[in-house]
Amino acid sequence: MLEDCKSALERWGGVHKLIDRWLDERRELLVNFVELKEACDAELEAVTKERIDGFSELLMDYISAGHFEVYPQLREEARAFEDESALTLADRLLERLEMSTELVLDFDAEYASPGRVRQYLGRLPAWLERLAHGLTERFSLEDQLIGRIHARHAPDAARAEAASRTS
């Protein structure tokens, strides 16, 4: 039983660190987003492909980390705690997240080459508005997912840690 407690702590403590790192990436993404928006507002023609690429790379990395690291780990945690209602909620939320994922992929494709940047630079402010709305909804859904699955099970992981110290 002690081994199970240690295993739970290692497993779900790692999820906490993963989520913390991911939320740090979100913060960095938002800072970069604001800087790009300010650059567009100041002088759109001065916005470079490199600046757009930097933002797009952060955006793609953030989305990828969610899809391939965080969401699967949260689902695994819900399964381990036999939390069927959390799994149902996760499925529903993940479906809704797909809309903003498609938006991000479309943005990345729109500005994929220097020629496309020149051709579509005028659309960048409108793209940033669309991304702002899509990302706001995405972050809200992700926060619900984290809150429902991980934060709800955090007390169980803390009990496991406490039990391992007293044994």
State the major sheet. none
Task: Calculate the terminal CA-CA distance, rounded to whole Å.
Answer: 10 Å
Counting DSSP H or I runs of 4 or more residues, the number of helices is 5
Average pLDDT number = 85
- Please give the share of residues in helix: over 70%
Q: Report the count of strand segments.
A: 0
Low-confidence spans: 1-12, 157-167
State the shape. elongated
What is the H/E string? HHHHH
What structural category do the secondary elements indicate?
A: mainly alpha
Strand content: under 5%
Provide the gyration radius in Å: 19 Å
Question: Briefly, what is this?
Answer:
With 167 residues, the protein is mainly α.
Describe the structure.
The protein is an all-alpha fold and 167 residues long. Helices cover 90% and strands 0% of the residues. The chain has 5 helices and no strands. It has helices spanning 2-43, 49-80, 84-110, 114-120, 124-166. α2 runs antiparallel to α3 (84-110) and α2 runs parallel beside α5. The longest helix is centred in the C-terminal third of the chain and has 43 residues, at 124-166. The N and C termini lie close together (10 Å). The model is unreliable at 1-12 and 157-167 (pLDDT under 50).
